[in-house]
Amino acid sequence: MAAFTQRREFLKQAGLVGSLGSAAMIAGLPESAMALGGVASTVVEDALQPSQTEEAPKYHIKFAVCGMSHDHIYGMIGAVQRGGGELVAAWGGEDDKLAAFRKRFPDAKIVKTQDEILDDPSVQLVLTSQIASERAGIAVRAMKRGKDFLSDKPGMTTLEQLSDVRRTIAETKRVYAILYSELLEVKAAVYAGELVRQGAIGKVIQTINIAPHQIFQRAGDAGGSSGRPDWFWNPEQYGGILCDIGSHQVDQFLFYTGSTQAEVVESQIANVRHPDHPHFQDFGDMVLRGDRGFGYVRLDWFTPYGVGTWGDGRLFILGTEGYMELRKYTNIAVSHQGNNLFVVDGKQARYIDCNAMPLPFGPQFVADIVNRTHMAQNPDEALLAAELVIKAQKNAQWVTLKD
């Protein structure tokens, strides 16, 4: 649970622990929300308000990109830059991705080979969102050449790759992390973790993650705004639905329950509506059992355009004294605003707007590189999440539904 303590300290310095800023705005709620069964209920609406302006980065490092197959690379770069990272070079294997990258970062040097980055002594950190099945190999080569490493999820797609990464971390002592952005880069998820740490809903019993996705997106950096490449449809390259997008959700299960040991009880996958890509998986789910809690994850590629975003991601956290719901990217049919957190306990029901929440991962991760620490992410937890989703994928039952 050390990660909780470290993140709490970051939030405390930002002036957000123990305070929800403005007073409750109950007068603006509908009458039906004020009285249930004739008894006045305590329904509170809060908005996090930072007590101080965001501080300038404490540290400075130079980093480079070695693979940009997925547009998640832009969020990864943004996180490191918030921590004081300077982007100095990039390599990419796809011409269209390189062209878009040049427009965003005209000052970054574009190199012709991966080795030009891995052999550059000035580069301290390497980032990759290369084709998923190739990420672990780049990580191992980078760490063996003295670089710290940040991978897009999933960091690896096979147990053999996972073993190679674990062994290389142990041998080289490099800092390695996987940017599970649905936890680390979602403000409501960060603040939910703080409330869990405070004991706001008692002991966490279970997490339920509903993670719908949209294949062809109309905008943004979630990956499909310019269509999907060939490797997206090939499970040997993207890892399969449970390994790929499921890695986000299993990471959250481990983080919120505090489980350090866990197993996949059952998992299943299907291709329901993509006959042109017979090996693609557009639905999957899994049941998890940890030493400190339970988990359920549902994944799909069926988000309709009417939702207004790439996916109506939901997280439910059940505790012994209450529960939470996170509506991460939209509040469906109410508002397109994301970072909505709902908390219910024995005294009240709260809605918390988390959009003013700071994101600690970037500054903490850069500090880890400078100080050789692990504040931003517990590496054992990150790799356990990877192990669980690979096993879930490997052992999943393929289900064929009748029309």
UniProtKB/TrEMBL annotation:
The GFO/IDH/MocA-like oxidoreductase domain sits at: 192-324
Its ancestry begins with: Bacteria, Pseudomonadati, Acidobacteriota, Terriglobia, Terriglobales
Q: Residues in domain Gfo/Idh/MocA-like oxidoreductase N-terminal?
A: 62-178
Pfam families xrefs: GFO_IDH_MocA, GFO_IDH_MocA_C3
Q: What is this protein called?
A: Oxidoreductase domain protein
Where on the tree of life does the source sit, at the highest rank? Answer: Bacteria
- Gene3D superfamilies membership: Dihydrodipicolinate Reductase, domain 2, NAD(P)-binding Rossmann-like Domain
> Keywords of this protein's UniProt record, alphabetized?
Oxidoreductase
InterPro entries the UniProt entry points to = Gfo/Idh/MocA-like_OxRdtase_N, Gfo/Idh/MocA_oxidrdct_glycsds, GFO_IDH_MocA-like_dom, NAD(P)-bd_dom_sf, TAT_signal
**MF terms (GO), sorted A to Z:** nucleotide binding; oxidoreductase activity
